[in-house]
Design a protein that fits this description.
2 copies of one chain form a homodimer. By secondary structure, chain A is mainly beta. The first copy, chain A, is about 10% helix and about 30% strand.
Chain lengths: ~425, ~425
């Protein structure tokens, strides 16, 4: 995690790629290189030029400590972006990635997509039924589940409709929250579905299972049984505490690396079947019509992806000089193996540092030192995963999936599983814009 | 993280230690062993015996999704335990470990110790001064700090006064929240102090630095400079978002593995010095008088420790049968290397499974399958770290540190750095009590 700092030689100070991107090793080798890279631009101020005065909050009694804390009242921006459906109900909350750092998403701003609001589930009355092609159908209460062996893991969840704006013919000018905010990462703890299926037994004819939620629309999705026996979890805890209402309190299906809406929330029923249920979620909402009019069903995996969060649209660059370029990478196939960053619109590339520990199917924070000379620049990141998949170019995705005529909605096509690159242009006046390169 | 499940042989089902503790490998080898171990005790119910009815929340519209979420309104217990000082101000908030799971502590219930409430710091006005024995004193704003290279790491913070009740002559009957709740673990992101000191330069005479907070009492503590150049961080983010008010918004000193109050919150000043400041925090509040009247100063490191959270006092066992024994282990010296668990009052021991990834100076969740026969049992955990330190026995600690005459307070002696074992007795009626073994 932390890194011993050793002295750098001048050679380490050379940029690794065009337009001022330094080598990631400068981050590991320590402060001397960075101080040199930063010098002349005065990120800090001489203490002689300013005095440290006692602010108003140093001479007054502080606020009372609450039993359950909240962010500072000054942090009014770092909240979810809410979007209403035509029905009036809030259908989405998007994560403010441009204002966050690290790898965990705070539970308060974890993304939400839903159709019927938050059911007021009483955990003492809630039951989970596992039935269908099993030897012995069983009912589990929250109390009984907490006696089973549990596992804890970091995992991202991403909506199939995340990043849909990148299918539009012109780049949408908005924040990374609006563009990529339907992807979040938590520490989840719960009981492996395989543990419960050992108890119910499995009829050899079973090849799928159908999960059903207990919210008023009873959202249902089919999952191949092999995923259920691999890493599917009945998640009971999120970031240490009971799972939040927006993520399915008191329990959800967690399918690490698979399309968000398959991770059924407010889970109440699992039915083992021979065939998929062909539910609305799979044959309409999250199916995609391809340019040749074929319909793509069961596109489960959130493929390898990355985007730069710092800087990103909404930031104003505060003059030339040193900046850390930082962002998020992840893959539904396992660990991120490499992230490359360009500052000159994909002419030259430097390898980013990946924050340890790099965990499978979880957010990985990447970072790279950058010295902006104040001229035009285009930042882009591209990630690889341990399955040796790379982010495709936007052109490659459009050739396969087509392009939207207008800003895509979740119900327009194509609008799902965009995992191409994201490019930010840095204007000489300091503005950051979304561009297609 | 997740584990491929393979079939068990009957041999794997044998207990690994007395009173029903199974081998940790049963957790890795999968469900068959556990299902067998659990059979006959009906954690679950046959679906034939019960029907799944549509609850009230399935037939009504749900609640509106907030821009910044909160736990379910049903989760009224999983909040911090507040204690007031004689001045009336809330001096402590303790983490409800008995109701949490995983390794991250939710920011809302991260422990807090303080004297003057939460200062209403304006992040745009706040400044950090680094001065004293430096080449060039500098002032940093939050804006300037966010341009520096950052690191992200998991780290626990523990108050020196945590676990003080174990110095009392008789075991205190209370929850693990009251007994061990002044220790919490977060993902922290910020700028390494070493990066900023490369920029200020260091006078060779400097051996210490003094951190000062900007709350009304201006809490100050001295830190050896070697720690500042090792893994000390100016933490700006906690669990992905701006650090919470209770943990020092907008910035704190983070000293992974070192006594909580040295991790100065609401940080505004760092002065490099030849000698420690001999501040109230170090010569009175967190100094300990030993039985021979020597005074122990500068007892920095939170040594290796563990305690069982499930089951623990406040739980009522729900009849004999299968339970997962689970708890938290950590060390200020690095990674936890091993946790042993006994169910028969330290007669026999079984090795617990450690949840991956095991990170240095961070909470590690340990787990072990247990089949309670309904008779008397005493659960105890004992942890080792990669520096090969083990938790001492309570007798070893008392021989060195002495014993309190009454329930110790932070200002009585001895009351600090108890890292001995914790033992829970399980009574035949299902009650869980704190006992000394």
């Amino acid at each position: 995690m932390s890194t011993k700092h050793t002295k750098l030689t001048v050679k380490d100070l050379q940029p690794a790629a065009g337009n001022g991107l330094f080598d990631r090793r400068a981050l590991f080798k320590g402060g001397a290189a960075l101080a040199a890279a930063m010098s002349g631009y005065s990120l800090s101020k001489s203490a002689a030029a300013e005095t440290l005065e006692d602010a108003e909050w140093m001479i007054t009694q502080g606020r009372e400590v609450p039993a359950y804390g909240a962010p500072s009242p000054m942090e009014t921006e770092a909240v979810g972006l809410l979007k209403r459906r035509s029905s009036g109900v809030i259908g989405q909350r998007r994560t403010p990635h441009h204002l966050l750092n690290g790898t965990v998403t705070p539970s308060g701003v974890h993304f939400y997509v839903g159709h019927a609001g938050l059911p007021n589930v009483d955990p003492d009355q809630h039951k989970l039924l596992i039935h269908g092609l099993v030897r012995q159908p069983l009912i589990f209460t929250l109390d009984s589940l907490t006696r089973y062996p549990m596992e804890t893991r970091m995992a991202f969840v991403e909506c199939g409709g995340n990043s849909a704006p990148f299918f539009s013919p012109e780049p949408i000018q908005d924040t990374v929250q609006a563009l990529h905010g339907m992807s979040s990462c938590s520490e989840w703890t719960g009981v492996m579905l395989s543990t419960l299926l050992e108890e119910t037994g499995i009829d050899p004819r079973a090849k799928w299972y159908i999960s059903e939620g207990c919210e008023s629309i009873a959202h249902t999705r089919s999952v191949p049984l092999y995923k259920g026996l691999d890493d599917a979890m009945i998640a009971l805890y999120q970031n240490g505490e009971r799972i939040r209402p927006e993520q399915g309190y008191p329990m959800r299906m967690l399918l690490p690396g698979w399309e968000g809406n398959m991770n059924v929330k407010w889970l109440r029923r699992i039915e083992l079947t021979e065939m998929p249920g062909m539910t609305t979620g799979e044959v309409r909402s999250y199916a995609d019509v391809l340019p040749n009019n074929d319909v793509m069903l069961f596109n489960f995996i959130n493929e390898v992806k990355s985007f730069i969060t710092h800087p990103s649209p909404g930031f104003m660059m505060n003059g030339p000089g040193f900046y850390e370029v930082s962002g998020i990478a992840y893959s539904g196939r396992g660990r991120v193996s490499k992230v490359m960053v360009s500052a000159d619109g994909c002419q030259t590339w430097a390898e980013a540092a990946l924050q340890e520990p790099v965990l499978p199917k979880a957010f990985t924070r990447f970072r790279l030192p950058w010295r902006w000379d104040g001229g035009p620049a285009v930042l882009q990141s591209r990630a690889w995963d341990e399955a040796d998949h790379a982010q495709p170019t936007r052109a490659e995705i459009l050739a396969w999936r087509g392009q939207s005529e207008k800003v895509p909605a979740v119900t327009s096509f194509p609008s799902h599983h965009y995992n191409g690159p994201t490019s930010w242009s840095i204007e000489p006046d300091g503005e950051v814009n979304n561009v297609y390169v």
